[in-house]
Amino acid sequence: MATTIRAVEWQLDTWPKHQAWVVLLGSSFLLLDQGGIWLICLVAIHTLYRILKHQREWRHSFPRLIANMVTFFRLLILFYTGLNWSQHTLWELSLFFWLAALLDVVDGWIARRFNGASRFGSLFDEEVDALFVLFSCYVLWQTGLGPWWILGAGWFRYLVVLIKSRFPAFPEKNVHFPWARTFAGIVFILLPLCFLLPQALSRLVEIGIFSLLAYSFIRELVLSYGHPTDLRNLSR
Questions:
Q1: What span, in angstroms and rounded, lies between the C-alpha atoms of 145 and 90?
Q2: Burial 167-181 (b: 16+ CB within 10 A, else e)
Q3: Nearest to 133 by CA among 146, 119, 115, 116
């Protein structure tokens, strides 16, 4: 029994790393015409594979099932919007992404309020959060509202995951960044807003989002590898 539990935990722990490889290697398809469809399909296949592989985990209790179903609905919204962005107005695209952001609050509230939290649910939520940023940046780029470098904002998290998996810190540190949720909330509000703002103002917001995410993930690396004095210097 203990061996089975350890095997399941190991499989869950490999999810972010494998997803990062899928996203970063799949992003090379963006160089091709209609390459975004290939990228989204690859991500969809890998994500659905993980969900099916651990379906017993997310059906363990009714509150857990409901919370994970809300997260899954968020995922479907993101896949639909990423594949069909050209068929919708900018207002509709903004509403789709705001709905996905709102449901992020809902699934977390259900999991906490009704004791439905789980290791799988936490990882599932994190992966969908990362896809929210990735697909938002991708659609902004496709609609001409975002420059090519906005895609980097969607790649930051995956690059950090690969760096930390390739060069694990010894001793391993439990990184806690109290402002992470606040930063994520700001990004989740501002990204859909970029679809509605005038282009000059939208560009300023995109620069702010890129800078905020860059700071957040660089700080995470410093927390993981750096000396405490390095962290104090970064916080000044």
A1: 10
A2: eeeeeeeeeeeeeee
A3: 146
Domains of the chain: which residue ranges? Answer: 16-235
Query: pLDDT tens digit string along 177-233?
Result: 667 788 888 999 999 999 999 999 999 999 999 999 999 888 888 887 765 444 444
Q: What is the percent of the chain where pLDDT is above 90?
A: 58
Concatenating the DSSP letter of every residue in 136-164 gives HHHHHHHTTSS-TTHHHHHHHHHHHHHHH
Residue 93 to residue 120: CA distance in whole angstroms: 29
Complete DSSP assignment for 39-95:
HHHHHHHHHHHHHHHTHHHHTSSHHHHHHHHHHHHHHHHHHHHHHHGGGS-HHHHHH
91-130 pLDDT tens trace = 999 999 999 999 999 998 988 888 878 888 889 999 999 9
Cα–Cα distance between 209 and 151 in angstroms, integer?
11
CATH fold for domain 16-235:
Four Helix Bundle (Hemerythrin (Met), subunit A) (1.20.120)
Instruction: For residue 106, give the H/E element and its range.
Output: helix 90-113
The label of the residue with tokens 């004791």 reads 115
Q: Which two tokens stand for residue 31?
A: 């160089």
Q: Which two tokens stand for residue 132?
A: 């929210």
Task: Identify which of 60, 164, 167 has the alpha carbon closest to the alpha carbon of residue 119.
Answer: 60
